[in-house]
Amino acid sequence: MIGGTGTISSAITRQLAKSGHDLWLLNRGSRKNEVPQGVKQIIADIDDTAEVLRQIGDEQFDAVCEFIGFVPAHVERDIHLFSGRTRQYIYISSASAYNKPAANHIITEGTTLANPYWEYSRNKIACEELLMKEYREKGFPITIVRPSHTYCERGVPLSVHGPKGSWQVLKRMMEGKPVIIQGDGSSLWTLTWNEDFARGFIGLIGNPKAIGEAFQIMSDEQLTWTQIYQCVANALNVELKPYYVASEFLAQIAPKEYDFEGNLIGDKSVTVMFDCTKLKHAVPGFEATTRFDEGVRRCVAYLQAHPELQTVDPEFDAWCDCVIDTLEKAKKQIKGK
């Protein structure tokens, strides 16, 4: 596994290690203390191909799983490193690669890939296209996986937050302040607990039905964004005070680093419902069993027990206050006329 300690991959690592698989992680070792016992570690920069080849020697792998490949150059590097060395190459793409808005809100693996709003998604599409070409022309044994919004105990998944994460939004809730939700909060979204995702992913490893195919892995539960924020407020045992603002407005006024054009217009503000029939045919018995209200309680409890993860973002907090104050003044001014 290239990566293996992130939000998605850490759950896969734990489950594979618990099952006794011969598992190797290739990463820079920044979270090596969290790696389960018995897992082999190759601590290296994946871009240092000479060092990677030195460490893997003549090893052959049943599967190579790429979690940190974001641009075509990363995929080209992997093809060079692992052609002839693996029976399967699993690439983590993104459900944000689907066309926004799609012609149909029911999303399948056949939904058109096109995202004019988010460079991150366009790069994922380019990586997929390169891999499919390599499969068609040279038989490189690819499997493409498209997760949507997958989360773990280390962070609460929300839509409108600053570059330092969602803790400041939780802090606003606990302080009794209003929190910004895009649109009118009624668009539907899917959130998937990482341990549920891991079971579906592991079912594709070594699966002959997976070669040359793309799969999406996510929960069957859909919630509105107001319901999502309400679940967070319930977990904090506070009152939710939503403040609704149009996604287009947020994208136009937010600092560039917030990337609301991509994150909101190109992804989270659009109602989507994912059809995982293809995955369930390839991995019989797969089911995501963690409801969001249960998962987010685990997140909140974990964050409250780990102050080092409570990253404050005063700039984002002040920005939220400014947006809300400005819109409230505009309302009063218009009413006054």
Structure description:
By secondary structure, the protein is of the alpha/beta class. It has a domain at 93-325: NAD(P)-binding Rossmann-like Domain (Rossmann fold, 3-Layer(aba) Sandwich), CATH 3.40.50.720. The chain is 41% helix and 14% strand. It has twelve helices and 14 strands. It has a four-stranded parallel β-sheet, sandwiched between helices. Strands 1-2 form a two-stranded parallel sheet. Strands 5-14 form a two-stranded parallel sheet. Helix 3 links the parallel strand 3 (64-66) and strand 4 (89-92). Helix 7 crosses helix 11 and helix 8 (247-253) runs antiparallel to helix 9. The longest helix has 23 residues, at 314-336. It is globular, with a radius of gyration of 21 Å. The relative contact order is 0.14. The mean pLDDT is 96.
Give a topology summary:
Elements (H helix, E strand, L loop, with lengths): L8 H10 L5 E4 L12 E4 L5 H8 L7 E3 L5 H11 L6 E4 L13 E2 L11 H20 L3 E6 L1 E3 L15 H8 L4 E4 L5 E2 L1 E3 H9 L10 E5 L5 E2 H12 L5 E4 L1 H7 L6 H9 L4 E2 L2 H6 L9 H14 L8 H23 L1
Parallel strand pairs: 1-2, 3-4, 4-6, 5-14, 6-11, 7-10, 8-13
Antiparallel strand pairs: 9-12
Beta content comes to 5-15%
Strand order of the largest sheet: 3-4-6-11
> What is the end-to-end distance?
62 Å
Count the beta strands: 14
Low-pLDDT stretches are none
